[in-house]
């Protein structure tokens, strides 16, 4: 699995746990909802600044999202 897809999976999973919508994340990031949707689908990778801002919105460390993405990518599942 491509890393950007794994990162998107990790962000989506955390959003689901916290019941945060794409629209809410988009507003907090000052992006359009379609722009967030493209990132969450893996079509467009999160850049580092966006990943950091996303982590702050989700009240987690960006390193946690990256670690989860690495674990999934390595075949560790969720």
Overview of this protein structure:
This protein has 78 residues and is mainly alpha-helical. The chain has a single domain (3-73), classed as 434 Repressor (Amino-terminal Domain) (Orthogonal Bundle). Helices cover 72% and strands 0% of the residues. The protein is built from 5 helices and no strands. It has helices spanning 3-18, 22-29, 33-41, 48-58, 62-73. It is globular. The mean pLDDT is 94.
CATH class: Mainly Alpha
Compressed to H and E, one letter per element, the order equals HHHHH
| Residue share in helix | over 70%
The CATH topology is 434 Repressor (Amino-terminal Domain)
CATH superfamily: lambda repressor-like DNA-binding domains
Which blocks of ≥5 consecutive residues have pLDDT under 50? none
**CATH architecture, please?**
Orthogonal Bundle
The outline comes out as globular
Number of helices: 5
Number of domains: 1
Strand proportion: under 5%
Question: Summary?
Answer:
The chain is mainly alpha-helical and 78 residues long. Helix content is 72%, strand content 0%.
Show the helix and strand layout.
Blueprint: H1 3-18, H2 22-29, H3 33-41, H4 48-58, H5 62-73
Helix pairs in contact: 1-5, 2-3
């Amino acid at each position: 699995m491509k890393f950007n897809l794994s990162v998107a999976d990790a962000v989506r999973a955390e959003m689901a746990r916290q019941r945060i919508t794409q629209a809410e994340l988009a507003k907090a990031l000052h992006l359009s909802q379609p722009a967030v949707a493209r990132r969450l689908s893996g079509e467009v990778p999160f850049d580092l600044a966006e990943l950091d801002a996303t982590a702050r919105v989700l009240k987690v460390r960006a390193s946690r999202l990256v670690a989860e993405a690495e674990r999934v990518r390595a075949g560790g599942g969720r």
